[in-house]
Amino acid sequence: MKQLYIIIFSISLFACAKEQSLNPDSTDNSLNLIRHKWNIESVSIYETADISGTSLYTFNPTGNYEDFRADGKVYTYGGSPIVSYDTFAYKILPDAKALLVYEIKNAITNTKADTMHIHTLTASSFIHYSRNPVNEYAKWVLKR
User: How far is CA 84 from CA 7, 25, 66, 114, in A?
Assistant: First the structure.
């Protein structure tokens, strides 16, 4: 199951959603809310972009996190059975409804970005979801 988590995060990072708990025109406000270490509470897999329906499955990784920092990078950790540390570059779009996320490999930032649309963003909750290579959607629930 942990391998699936790592694959989902590393390959297909982020894709669609809309609902936000902040002013959608305030990129500074959004960045201030995002720039924290977020604990991954759950990851749910769906067949469609409707993440309010019934998930195919859900797992609750323990000790895993996404750490969005002011240096424009997000540092991720996935624990046992396979320990995985990854680093991605990110930047917020002008409408503050999505982030562009770029894989960093061998100290080189990929020029092709995945889009992480923000579903919910508050001081204590960050929810986004991504489309993976087999056209399923992964909803990530993060808490501070």
Answer: 10, 35, 12, 20
